[in-house]
Amino acid sequence: MLPRFGIEVVAAVGDAPALLAAVREHRPELVVTDVRMPPGYTDEGLRAAIALRAENPGLAVVALSQYVQHSYAGELLASGSGRSIGYLLKDRIGDVSEFAGQLRRVAEGGTVVDPEVVRQLMQHRRDPLKQLSPREREVLALVAQGHSNAAAAGILHLTEAGVVKHIGNVLTKLNLPVSNDTNRRVLAVLAYLRSRSD
C-alpha cells in the first residue's frame, strides 16, 4: 500500500527481534511498527521502538495499536524530545492517503498522536490505578494492608501463583520497572495510598 503513495519500504518483518535487526541494517528514515508483535503479542513492538529511539533519538517512529499501552506509550512519546513520533489507533485509521500524510509528517520531524491516546494518557496521569482490573485493585489493597501473598490468596480464594501474577500485572501497569534502587511493591502501595487520599 505505501509504495502507491511514494513511500519506499526497505524491509517488512514479523517480530520484534527482526525489527531491531532490520532497522540496524537498513537505517530507515521511518519505522512503522505494531505495538503487539511476536513472540509474546503483548508490547514487544512498542518496547523495540523505545529501544531504537534510545539508540537513535532522531529515528522517526509510528506505533500502531488496537489500544493504548500506558506503561510505554508515554515513554515512547517523550523520547527524542517528542519529535518524529506517532502513536495511532488502528481502528481509527480510515483514509489511506491521510495515513500516508501522517507518516510523512512524522518522518519530517512532526508528531502525530491519536486524540484518544492523548485523552487516555491524561486520564492515566490523574489516576494511575484506573487501568487496573477490579481483581488487581483487590490484590493491591491487601498488599497495602500488609498481607503476604499467601494471606491475600486465602482471602481472595486464589492460588498464591495467581496473586503473584496479579501483582506482576499491577507493577507493569503502574510502569514500575525492575531496579536495584527501589522496591516496586512499596512503590505500588504508595501509588495506591496516594490515590485513596486524593
From TrEMBL:
<dbReference type="InterPro" id="IPR000792">
    <property type="entry name" value="Tscrpt_reg_LuxR_C"/>
</dbReference>
<dbReference type="InterPro" id="IPR001789">
    <property type="entry name" value="Sig_transdc_resp-reg_receiver"/>
</dbReference>
<keyword id="KW-0804">Transcription</keyword>
<feature type="modified residue" description="4-aspartylphosphate">
    <location>
        <position position="34"/>
    </location>
</feature>
<dbReference type="Pfam" id="PF00072">
    <property type="entry name" value="Response_reg"/>
</dbReference>
<feature type="domain" description="Response regulatory">
    <location>
        <begin position="1"/>
        <end position="105"/>
    </location>
</feature>
<protein>
    <submittedName>
        <fullName>LuxR C-terminal-related transcriptional regulator</fullName>
    </submittedName>
</protein>
<keyword id="KW-0805">Transcription regulation</keyword>
<dbReference type="InterPro" id="IPR039420">
    <property type="entry name" value="WalR-like"/>
</dbReference>
<keyword id="KW-0597">Phosphoprotein</keyword>
<dbReference type="InterPro" id="IPR011006">
    <property type="entry name" value="CheY-like_superfamily"/>
</dbReference>
<keyword id="KW-0238">DNA-binding</keyword>
<dbReference type="InterPro" id="IPR058245">
    <property type="entry name" value="NreC/VraR/RcsB-like_REC"/>
</dbReference>
<dbReference type="Pfam" id="PF00196">
    <property type="entry name" value="GerE"/>
</dbReference>
<feature type="domain" description="HTH luxR-type">
    <location>
        <begin position="125"/>
        <end position="195"/>
    </location>
</feature>
